[in-house]
Amino acid sequence: MVRVSDPTASPSGPPDAGSEGAHPLLSLALAGMMDDVGAHAGAVYLLSPEDAVLEMAVMAGLPRAFAAPWERVALTSPVPVADAVRERRLVWVGGEEDMARRYPRIAVVLPYPFAVAALPVARADTVYGAVFVTWPGSHSPEPSDAEHAALLAACDRLALRLERAAKAGRPVHPEADFLGPSAMAGTTGAAEAAQMAARIPDGLCALDVDGRVTYANPAAAELLGRPVRELLGGKPWNALPWLNDPVYEDRYRGAMISQHPVSFTALRPPQDWLTFRLYPSRSGLSVLISPARGTGRDKPVAEAGRHRAGLVAITHLLTLASALTEAVSVTDVIDLVADEVMPAVDSRTLVVLVPEAGRLRVLGHRGYPDPSLAEHYDGIPLSAPRPSAQALATGVPSFFETREKLEAIYPARVATPDGMAAWAFLPLIASGRPVGTCILGYTEPHRFADEERAVLTSLGGLVAQALERARLYDAKNRLAHGLQSALLPHSLPRLPGLEVAARYLPGTQGMDIGGDFYDLIRTAPDGEQPPAAAAPSPGDGRGRAAPTRPQAGPAPAGPARRATGVQAAAVIGDVQGHNVTAAGLMGQVRTAVRAYTAVGQQPGTVMASTNLLLIGLDVDLLASCAYLHLDLPRHRALLARAGHPQPLLRAPDGTVHVLDLPGGPLLGVDPTAVYPTSAVPMSPGSVLVLYTDGLIEAPGVDLDAALAQVADRLERNGDRPLEELADHLIEGKAAGPRDRGDDTALLLLRPNR
């Protein structure tokens, strides 16, 4: 479990914890795995099924503090061990660039060259945990076949032993971390080596894997200004105030993780500059210390005695800040705090409260087996003598290590228990303004050390900023959706003899609002018939035979004719842009089309009139559009296009045609543009598909291939009800919302058989 105040502590269980017989099961398995593949560090995680969390049980080769943000990892986290468990496979990260691309949160905290392999520890139907091992950055970009096989075999053996332990009723517990042998102990000729090092004029120190000094020669003691006895057993940055800076501690961490030599220069007050050269190995570090040459005043000075946040605390904040930058909506913030923050700080419950109308309202909560336990926070007056309200009112965090300490200050809290034994009440302050309170609960009494309180307080600031951004985003999103909903038809008219379905998906870039639109307009009562088109010609509109395409041709004006049946107009269009201007113009275009339709204009004339309107508005935006008049009694449609993608038509026999009909330029370009009208057969059972370019356009995607894919789906699913067919046609876009660079509108029309 994470204990920020004591990052070097290694968990240890009973002597036989997690063992078969008297042998530590996890430590031996991990050490054997590292030896088999030549890895220099690794860890074993055990799965906590009730929390869906991986908990680090033993670590080897590196101090546990290096992995402090990942001691408890939610299965949903973007971390190699979590991915390995979810996907039940080996996850390989081949170096610094690969880590930055695939796991940016880890790369921010550990920007060093190293390779990682993560694997699940599982049997056929049971997952017990996960393992990761690391190599220096000089390792090849991919694991060798031998390494791959050795890792899989080792994890299989460990899973088998864990399965046997579970069946025998022997629970497996965390074990003491294995940090390797000390640099000098037990080595042949250790005394002679120490005597030799004592004669060297430069300073020599040996550090174990955890950073503790195991040997220092007299020259090192003289250069560092401390007797050897005061150096041994401690960490240099703890024993020497002028080295107590995360910058220097980070050099040690970088050397241990990358297994590459590292050097730095530091000032020993008042004016002595020293150069430190760190040479890492699997068992620790050898440090060479010498007076620096060519020093100047431009080197970083570590002020003696100045308080600094520890490297572990900084690591936590970097990890959490990186996670929170990915939060977009309020739900995202709550989920990320629950998935990333709660495991990292070892809390079991979370409540986020915001002020509203003089009271606190529960914005979200996690971890409570009974949700009603969290709801008692809802409705608390902001002036109430309660820790949740006081944290928001004063801006001061409160930490209560036991229930007794909380109830001694807030007796009223006795009447509203939530089952927790310790709490942290964190005010959420963003831009100097209180935006809420975050409450973390612990099932056991919890000691909040000074450094942990600092981390949690800083965490409150990060959550507050993320929450404020998310609430603004949600408000903007509601506005965008409300505007889009107001501009698009709430429902399409039900017309006898015609089945209709429509879909609209906003793009994910910009304001989540755009200029795509569709509409279906009833143009005349039964028995009324607008001007009819001439009979279709056998050409494709360009003077070429088109035996595989529906016949189409020009539709000149003619006298009105009488027939029985329903007349209707359908339109689909795309105004350039993804903002309020585009949406507003889309509303104007849609209204204009309806008006021109109402006065009986033919499709080509409707397009020409709308084109002139758009040019007259002088908005510097263009639009594409496809407009058709449905002549259901005659089983045909009269269609005009203005720079819009060609519709698709599925014939009753299942064949699909691209209606490559003549059209005019985009609306808003040429005031003299002409938009020819063509006739399209609409036999009962056929399906006409009108769509905007968002359905087929995507970065790096060939348009012809994308259109062919849509046509194939139409051919295979065209006999389904139109609502199901619409879902099939947009399933690729709907499944990947983060990849939609453009809006998508879809309108399907099918005359009844």
Verbal overview:
The protein has 753 residues and is α+β, with helices and mostly antiparallel strands. It contains 20 helices and 28 strands. The chain has a six-stranded antiparallel beta sheet with strand order 5-4-3-8-7-6. Strands 10-9-13-12-11 form a five-stranded antiparallel beta sheet. Residues 1-22, 182-188, 295-311 and 526-564 have low confidence and may be disordered.
In short:
Helices cover 33% and strands 25% of the residues.
Low-confidence stretches: 1-22, 182-188, 295-311, 526-564
Largest beta sheet, briefly?
A: 6 strands, antiparallel
Radius of gyration: 35 Å
Secondary-structure-based class equals: alpha+beta
Silhouette:
elongated
Taking the alpha carbons of the first and last residues, their distance comes to 68 Å
> Can you give the helix content as a percent range?
25-40%
Order of strands, main sheet, comes to 5-4-3-8-7-6
| Continuous helix count | 20
Give me the count of strands.
28
Strand content: 15-25%
What is the residue-averaged pLDDT? 79
What are the SSEs and their pairings?
Layout lengths: L18 E2 L2 E2 H13 L3 E8 L4 E8 L11 E3 L5 H8 L3 E3 L2 H7 L1 H6 L4 E9 L4 E10 L8 H23 L22 H10 L3 E6 L4 E4 L1 H7 L3 H4 L4 H4 L6 H13 L3 E7 L3 E10 L2 E8 L19 H14 L5 H16 L3 E8 L2 E8 L5 H4 L11 H8 L3 E3 L2 H7 L12 E9 L2 E10 L7 H38 L10 E8 L9 E10 L42 E9 L4 H19 L4 H15 L5 E9 L4 E7 L5 E3 L5 E3 L18 E5 L5 E5 L11 H15 L4 H14 L8 E8 L2
Antiparallel strand pairs: 1-2, 3-4, 3-8, 4-5, 6-7, 7-8, 9-10, 9-13, 11-12, 12-13, 14-15, 14-18, 16-17, 17-18, 19-28, 20-21, 21-22, 22-23, 23-26, 24-25, 24-27, 27-28
